[in-house]
Amino acid sequence: MKIAILGSGNVATHLSKALKAIGEDVVQVYSPNLEHAKLLADELQASSVNHLEQVIGDADFYVVCVKDDAIATVATGLKDVDGLVVHTSGTTDLETLSSTLKNTGVFYPLQTFSKHKEISFNNIPLCLEANSEANFEILNLLANKLSNQVYQLDGEKRKVLHLAAVFACNFTNHLYTLANQLLEKNNLDFEIIRPLIAETADKVMVNLPENVQTGPAVRKDEITINKHLSMLADLPELQEIYQTLSSSIKLTY
Amino acid sequence: MKIAILGSGNVATHLSKALKAIGEDVVQVYSPNLEHAKLLADELQASSVNHLEQVIGDADFYVVCVKDDAIATVATGLKDVDGLVVHTSGTTDLETLSSTLKNTGVFYPLQTFSKHKEISFNNIPLCLEANSEANFEILNLLANKLSNQVYQLDGEKRKVLHLAAVFACNFTNHLYTLANQLLEKNNLDFEIIRPLIAETADKVMVNLPENVQTGPAVRKDEITINKHLSMLADLPELQEIYQTLSSSIKLTY
User: Fold this and answer.
1) Between 1.10.1040.20, 3.40.50.1100, 2.40.240.10, 3.40.50.10240, what CATH number should domain A158-252 receive?
2) Tell me: the pLDDT tens digits for B23-35?
3) Nearest-CA neighbor of B62 among B39, B80, B85?
4) β-sheet with A61-64: strand ranges across
5) pLDDT digits (tens, 9 = 90+) for B104-129
6) Which of B91, B194, B196, B246 to mutate to test the interface with A (most CBs of A within 10 A)?
7) Between A156, A199, A204, which is nearest B197 by CB?
8) What's the complex ipTM?
């Protein structure tokens, strides 16, 4: 397939490289910032453009990997291309892609991408939706070449999944940051807590999290909880988070 | 070293097996519940007892792995043994071990243990404290045989570490549970989110978490945040957690 990538951020970078790696023909990268477009295009041996009217009209597949609030504008800029146009957003409706487009879909990789960390697409769940059965089959075929976890999800389910991902990924990483704030304040290195973080994630690879909850709140150990709350007296923000999550734990299990 | 284990829970089980595996002589397991003591003792080919006065008096090393609020009682029950008596608690002062004991210490493994999941002690940070330089050296020698991450930490730092661990492990696992609640409610399988959880933890093995935060709150994407809050309208507990953590993220980065 002849593919144009619209965007140059983390998703654009990782996805375009993965598409090239399975032998697809990534021919062009668009970004409003030409330097950004060129940087990625050079890695892909593709051309780079920074105006939507310069995007080729005869690609088979257009992948819109831009910020959610720019998807509509970019898709409208593609005018009436015949190729299949997909966005990669968890929170955006399929219908946000311009109504003048004939072939549309969603290709949402459920993963957290960082610029400087390689990641294999094999284990990345790909969540698909399309405006026709035929277009879905095109996406499904492609997705199965990239990953062994492919799901067909409508917009409502995709949005729930995105919300769940905020809890399981974004909020979790923030808890790591708060833990590190406590460590740094006491001249302890983050290294000391890394094995615990790794094992906490590893435990739920084979268990459901509700079956492996540990800690003072699930034991209803009020003595330790109160000690911790008083240790956080000068950090009211952390104290509030401690209180909120501990109350939730006590109610949940 | 001739070792007696006081306790039969997760820490007692994992630690006693690790001690046996490096060639130490684990001779006895005490638990107020004889059946529990026997279950672990059989695995270790040790004897089992359920009264503190039955605990052997001539062990070199007594490992008290009982609930925090039972440590004082068990230590007092050991009366005036000469061997080195340690507890394994993150939150308990060294001084909680009876003042009649001559040789005392803390041997705190910073890890989350589950009954049915094997774990190698190699990468478990062991946090040590002792009531004398000589006793510290005994602990240090033993700890270095078990793990390549050994730290000398006083009670204050150990308590901070334990508190940080609640954020990085217990609260994190609870966020996984909340994510799964959202998924289950919408007939989505937890499997779909496992790769994201694994990668979120993996990212901070080489980065500091404050450098890899992603998601709507750190982007100050109020449109997505408000969509998510309205999706949680019928789950006020999750809505509060979403709000509290998003506010904290917006203030932190």
Assistant:
1) 1.10.1040.20
2) 999 999 999 999 9
3) B85
4) A47-49, A25-30, A2-6, A61-64, A84-87, A104-109, A126-130, A150-152
5) 999 999 999 887 788 899 999 999 99
6) B196
7) A204
8) 0.94
